[in-house]
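Kindly inspect what follows.
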Amino acid sequence: MSELLDRLEAAFTAKRPEYEAFVDNLKALLQNLLEAGEIEVVRIEGRAKGLANFRDKISRPSKQGKYHALEDITDLAGLRIVVYYQKDVSSVIKILESNFEIDTKNSTNKAKEIEIDRLGYQSIHYIVSHSAARRGLDENKRFQGMKAEIQVSTVLQHAWAVLDRRLRYNNNAEMPDAIKRILFLISGQLETADILFTQVDDEVFRIRKEYGKKLREGQVSVPINVDSLTAFVTSSSLVQDIISSAKAAGLMSKDRSPTSEVRDYSRQKLVDILDGAGIKSISEFENILQNLIAEFDKIFMEVVSELVPMEYRMSIFAVLRALMFFSDDRNVVQAAKDYGAFSGRTRERILAAYGALVQGGSV
């Protein structure tokens, strides 16, 4: 048996760089698939198993006789996808099942395995390999026969797993009943919170949909908040013109959704600017933009010229924040300066673009 373990360890040592490359390959693919599926993730992380962990795994008494070749070990490459809500976990699973070959024998879904009257960390562990179509691609041929374990969890499930590993005893028999009781209560509270967060997200979606309906019907007197601004951006033809001009100037990426990867920070900053300027309704905000409509192309080209070399491409909410510096309403301009629309070099360059246009008589 010792000879077999030595042979497995030598084989993994030699092939570990390939597993590291496999992890990078899968991580890039997953990022593309999840972005195409419009699933917002907290993080995707991965690594090849360390040599010490590998040695410990194959040496355990419970594993004796299980591994005869490196291919028998299915978690030498591991990735973790952390999402916000439980419904996102289901969406990720569909993407995995549609794009990879799943080793169902070695995959686990603890959400299904936990008894109905029990609570706990409901993890998803899928053992995957490239599909036949992807195995035929030149960049994937080196990964023939290789498998990876992909774990999928919500933020709260991930937090539970991290803390559970830190507090874990060698086995349940060693754990005092008082500790078991506390952990049971915590797991139940986290599971409840997961369900409630999903309900909140669904309610936010409903509210934004209702705002969008009102705006499409011309009811632009709705109050300004993060949700009404989001609905305005996705339903306004005026904003679509702004997006087109910004993309043509190179201020926004041409190959991404204008609202993708936008955090509430950027939206909230726009709310803060408008509130500071006394702008209370979408109709008032729309009027500010209407007054700038003839200058969109000039403004964006000047901003781009000041931002080159650009460190990033702006989201639509950042573009709208930048436009506030060019308003003919002095209260709006002052609010843009006062309420943290931008900072550092970006702020300086936007102000320089404003100065250049003022001197040229454009605004």
